[in-house]
Amino acid sequence: MKRFWIPSLLLLTLVSTGFSQKITSVPALPALERGLDAIKIENAKADLHFLADDALGGRDTPSLEQQIAARYLRARLMRLGFEKGFKDTFIHPYQLPQWGMNAVETHMTLHVKGGDFQWAWGKDFFYGTGSRSDRDIKQASVVYLGPSSKANKSKAKVEGCWVVVEGSRRPSRKTRTDLKSRGAHGIILIPEKGEGEEIAEKQASLYKRQLSPSWREGPEAGGFATIVLPLNTADALRRAIGKAKPGKKISCKISERCSVWSGETTLENVIGIWPGSDSKLRNEVIIVSAHYDHVGKHEDGRIYNGADDNGSGTTGLLALCEGLAEYGPMKRTVMVMWVSAEEKGLWGSSAWTKNPWFPEGMGPVCNINIDMIGRNAGDKLNITPTKKHEEYSWLTKVAMQQSKFEGFPKLGNADDYYWRSDHASFRKNLGVPVIFLFADVHEDYHKPTDTVDKINFDKITRVSRLVLRVLDQIQEEKLSN
Ligand SMILES: [Zn+2]
Predict the structure, then answer these.
(1) C-alpha to C-alpha distances, 6 to 30, 40, 275, 475, nearest whole angstrom
(2) How many angstroms is it from 414 CA to the middle of ligand 1?
(3) Which of 73, 128, 130, 387 is most buried (CB neighbours < 10 A)?
(4) pLDDT digits (tens, 9 = 90+) for 25-69
(5) How many A from CA of 49 to the centre of ligand 1?
């Protein structure tokens, strides 16, 4: 795309006052100056007040509010004339497996002489960690093993049976593995007489967590089921145990149906391209990234606004786009990328870098990542990799040279964070040099108190200006140490 870079108002004035012949002699501001001037504190304020508003609900992955944030970013790319960064769209969709419990279809039945007790999941019984997978066990016998801590001593025949133990914790891993290899269906844990309130509360909170879908691992197949009974249901089972000695079958049967669903969820990264002007160098793409997700809401409704983490970097990248739009094309192509699900474990950057897309003929040369750049002392900014880090490269050197022009006399050491934000995905999966700019954690890190009123907007814009300076300096033919 081509643009006429003399500010149009000035041009009009010159034309209308009859000085049109002198236009060629009016010196336009150098591209870098124009770009730096376009990075404005007021704009950064407006952007972050939107992104870190309660209405954006903490930009959780996945959430409607996160999708709204993505569309806000896309709107800016469109307005500033960026090209689509993923095939024919600005939004790179990626899929993640998702699974959860079919609550209604998950139930237990205690069969005793006088009739059946129907138990509902989340009220009458709970699952311990690693217990949720598809199972349908009908009328299995029950063996009583006594106190949980002594279950390892028992040599009872447990094949095809449930094992009942008493206590506040399930038996050790070794005992569980042993019981599993001997063919038991799983462990049913009942509280000892007199205890229980606290356990019941713990279980209820575990259950609440199990209600929302999980992504991290698939259904916990192959795990050894632990079922926890609160006092009210444990009593019925206790009556069936009666005076039975540990190691004996008791006079009841138990059926259990555990049902999980699995599917996929679509998440989004937002990507724009600022095409380079040099016929050869334009194929070399510099990627600037920031994650736009945060951690959503607390169970009690408090919102984690994530103004600094990473509303600040998200805003800083928007400011950089404003700068690029005024700078005009660089020799190399710049790709700007807001990724999601950083807080879940760098999922967005990892999905893209494992399957990257570039316009034909283009490929990556480096990545600059910004995350948390709006807090702590105004002159404090850290970088990784530093000279002390084995991944140190020409890119760090350039940032070190430029930082003093933006009020960061010396960049501090963030080497402890080399694998902690999205640049790690670019390094790992694309093999390109990376730098990470980061103003460090603070007392509001990952708390609902990370709010917009505490943000230093001047600092955010100076980091954006620094990135623009770095981009400007790495336009020469050869990039190297
Ligand atoms: Zn972050």
Answers:
(1) 10, 20, 20, 22
(2) 14
(3) 73
(4) 667 789 999 999 999 999 999 999 999 999 999 999 999 999 999
(5) 18
